[in-house]
Amino acid sequence: MVSTTAGTTDVDRAVPTSGAKLNGATLNDAAGPGLDAGVTEHPLPLERFIPLTTLALVDRLAVPEAWPNSDHSEARRFFRYLDFWRRQQHNRRLMTLLRAYEPFDPDSDLLITREYSAAEKRRLQKRTVRDVRQILEQANYVAVDPKSIEVILTKESHYGLDLQVDLGVFEECLLFYRGASKKRDTRTNYRKFMRKEEFDVPIYRRLFILFKLKPFDVRVQEVMASKNITEKEAAKVVTRMRGSLPAEVKEGNIYIKLFKNIPRNDLEMVFPNTRVRFRLWDKIKLGVTGGGAMGMGLVGTAGKVAAGGLTLANPVALAGAVAGLGGIAFRQGVNFMNQKQRYMVVMAQNLYFHAMADNRGVMIKLSERGAEEDVKEEILLYSVLAKETCKRQDLELIDRAIESYLRSAFDIKVDFDLPDALERLIADGIVREDADGTLHTLAPREAAQHLDAKWDRFLDDLPDGIEQEGTEVDTEDFPHL
């Protein structure tokens, strides 16, 4: 069983049989993923992300009491080998992804030496989006449907902004999060005599977005069909809508962004075509102040005219009154513009402090996180399977027991991703499955030696050539080394 006492983990056996326990929880009675008696159900489904470092898990799982025959040092060595091996596998896939992304990278400072046909670029685009999605899933990110109005286009805003997004402009759009949580913040409560009060803000600790604009002609045809207007009118509409985008956003590029601690009600701000609108309260406030000032100005001017003080016989005085009225109108217009400018500053400041990485940097970071998640899942599963042989039919109980262990040992609730971890261990030869579903696991020493041998063969097993779309540019302008 796996039990936690005084901060250490005893792993003497983890056999999914009746009465066996993992971390003090009976396997047959272990609670379902993330569900404890009396605990309020989470508003979002439990995530597969394990919010622990690999080192923290290794320290808990490789203590001497956990392994018989002094295998704890061998287990620690195997875990270290597995960490390096898994990262190398991810690095190989990352190189392939970065190669496919080259034609769409907006940050590239490299000399362009290859040309791509339209068909080749379409294949590379689909491959890039597919591989990025795969890395996100391996890093235990959760997909958000950008077309879900209930999730994305909310009217509430933590930062007091009314943000609008047109999702129809994107040809590709991926939105993923990891770490749905809350943070404490303060605000002024006008109903409590301007007192400060604390409140919880639902956030995504990590938020990923990938987007690519639709070609201009494609978007024009869509606007023609949706608004039933001519092509010329639709082109003007599309041009006007794209005028709000930064000049550097091109339809041929794929943009990738990674943010941290984004309030769930402000997801719109991470899109490039976000439009800031006045809230109802701001409209009322500006309307009342502006209307009052204009009204007073009109009343004052009309009174002077009615009293005979301002007539055509005194055009200078009349022009002064009209100019004063115009000044009032101009000042109110400036107030409107200043309020919108304050909105834009708030959004820009918050994005500045929330941004983590862009484009290639996002891919590299996600690849590293994906490898780390894989390693954590694999060492947890291996620590159970290595104690005694079990069968595939017992995996659900093991899954629930590992989740129970993480709850009691670290006070975290996750939906453990056992099937993927098992398939990776089988693919690498660490675990072998018989025809009847019996699982055999290499002992720590043999497992480490097995990965050592695979590492020695790694370069020898690489393919001789790498297929790549595009053709080399035939020009004499490039110097030969």
Structural notes for this entry:
With 481 residues, this protein is α+β, with helices and mostly antiparallel strands. The chain has three domains: 2-94 and 361-457, no CATH class; 102-277, no CATH class; 280-345. It contains eleven helices and 16 strands. The strands form six sheets. Strands 6-8-9-10-12 form a five-stranded antiparallel beta sheet. Helix 8 crosses helix 10 (418-427). It is globular. Mean pLDDT is 77; it is low at 1-42 and 149-154.
Note the topology.
Elements: E1 2-5, E2 8-11, E3 21-22, E4 25-26, H1 54-61, H2 72-101, E5 114-115, H3 118-138, E6 142-143, E7 162-164, E8 170-189, E9 195-213, H4 216-227, H5 231-242, E10 255-263, E11 275-277, H6 280-306, H7 315-354, E12 355-358, H8 360-385, E13 390-391, H9 395-410, H10 418-427, E14 431-433, E15 438-441, H11 444-457, E16 471-472
Antiparallel strand pairs: 1-2, 3-4, 5-16, 6-8, 7-11, 8-9, 9-10, 10-12, 13-15, 14-15
Helix pairs in contact: 1-8, 2-3, 2-8, 2-11, 3-8, 4-5, 6-7, 8-10
